[in-house]
Amino acid sequence: MFYKKNLVKKIIKYGKMCGEKNFTPGYSGNISARYKNGLLITTSGSSNSYLTDKEIVYTDFNGKSLEFKKKPSSEKFLHIEIYKRRPEINYIIHVHAPYLSSFASSGKDLMEPIMAENVFYFGGIPLAKYALPSSMDLVNNTVKYFDNYDAVLMENHGFIVASKSIEDAYMKLELAESYAQVVVNTIVLGGPKLLSDNDVSKILELR
Ligand SMILES: [Zn+2]
Q: Residue 117 CB: number of other CB atoms within 10 A?
């Protein structure tokens, strides 16, 4: 059983960790946890790095706040539709981490097999087509990738990762952001050396 108080504590803790690593500058991003028949999500206009328990709101799957005078993040439906689609997912972190957002803003995915660890954990990180933030088009363009992936770049916007545990979601965010940085560096150094199909299938067998 997940207690509300514990989930709120976890969201605050991991929000702060995202801030310490500059994954979630300013007011960007939002974090949520599945709770009862809905979710606990950061409120509209809150800053993930500096959350208090007042900035996390119990919201139902219709996007309606179940707490007096608290307004959920405008990206609530992005979270809700992932929870609906993937019953085993319990936590979602959406951020505008600089390196991942650089790929998203260049219209580039992270699907090429460049680093063994990344192939192992992600397979690849696809790029969802741009749509206006908080629109249902954004939800539709992004959520479909969660049928095959746990982490997705959002074009001209940022990154979103989902997992069973918040620890794992955060670790995957940290891996993905450092991976994006490595890929930029490989370009500076003359371009990445790609892993072969054979290398990739051997890595995937390790899973
Ligand atoms: Zn965003």
A: 12
Residue 197 in tokens: 């199909």
The CATH class, in words, for 4-205 is: alpha beta
* Ligand 1: centre distance to CA 104 (Å): 11
**Residue 24 CA to ligand 1 centre (angstroms):** 9
Q: Give yes or no for a contact between 130 and 106, defined as CB atoms under 8 angstroms apart.
A: no
Q: Are 79 and 30 in contact (CB under 8 A)?
A: yes
* Amino acid at the residue 84: K
Ligand 1: distance of its center to the CA of 206 in Å? 33
At 202 the three-state DSSP class reads: helix
CA of 101 to the centre of ligand 1 (A): 10
Residue 1 CA to ligand 1 centre (angstroms): 30
Task: List the chain domain ranges.
Answer: 4-205
* Per-residue pLDDT of the chain in tens (207 residues, 90 and over written 9): 579 999 999 999 999 999 999 999 999 999 999 999 999 999 999 999 999 999 999 999 999 999 999 999 999 999 999 999 999 999 999 999 999 999 999 999 999 999 999 999 999 999 999 999 999 999 999 999 999 999 999 999 999 999 999 999 999 999 999 999 999 999 999 999 999 999 999 999 998
C-alpha 29 to ligand 1 mean position (Å): 5
Q: Is the pTM of this model over 0.70?
A: yes
